[in-house]
């Protein structure tokens, strides 16, 4: 998914100096962003004051939207570099096309994982015909310096491991949780899991105290470490936890995001992650001139133009504003 904001702002991310080294409870509220003609997303990362959770650097939550009489998601071809995109659905389908020739329909609780590496472009759209409802999350993972120029590739995993207990299911999207490991390729210590809680169910998740964590509320009402969360909000939890108590106040859907605090400071502008202003400027030129990022074939429409670069120098400044 692209950042479609035509006044794309610079986000300076990374560095351990701003990580909460102890458990905290910091409720993040979203910024509402239009995505195409008929989809509005709630942007949780980057957020005012909080830029990353581990290597997770971008989180959009959208829906549930009734798109029975709408085109649904329509994101034209756009570029990425230096990151991975994670597509995750609770309802609906998304048709993924990319410059490698990949063509795949992603369905609920299937992992669509695209590693941009040095350069890739892709489009995302609701198929024709499509399901009535669209509900999901789009997330980006920063690639560490040693791997940020890997060859681009796309993975689709329809069958993911689960951790279950009465009234509770955790589907492991990336990384490992309670001994269950996702087949998705990762390049830094990270975890992502989809959590389903039945009404009245309590559960306790084992956590790694060296990771920082956050929980995104997708649907229903739940308490996370005693804090009520509602759909479209995210609770930042800091580090130093060995377990996380959860309780469903209704049937509820959550996403657990975590990882070792990201060592490096990075620049994130539009759909690019780099380490310097020159690198970002070169990527924009390459996309504008039609080089390096390849061509997405089969999408009915023009590709996205790059927004104007900010008038001020770009410099990494850490994880929080």
From TrEMBL:
Top-level division of the source organism's lineage:
Bacteria
- Write out the ranges of the annotated region (Disordered): 295-321
InterPro entries linked to this entry: Pirin, Pirin_C_dom, Pirin_N_dom, RmlC-like_jellyroll, RmlC_Cupin_sf
All residue ranges annotated as the Pirin C-terminal domain in the record: 193-293
Gene3D superfamilies per the record?
Jelly Rolls
Please report the stretch or stretches of sequence annotated as the Pirin N-terminal domain.
41-141
Pfam families, alphabetized: Pirin (PF02678), Pirin_C (PF05726)
Q: Which family does it belong to?
A: Belongs to the pirin family.
- Please give the name of this protein: Pirin family protein
Provide the species name: Streptomyces blastmyceticus
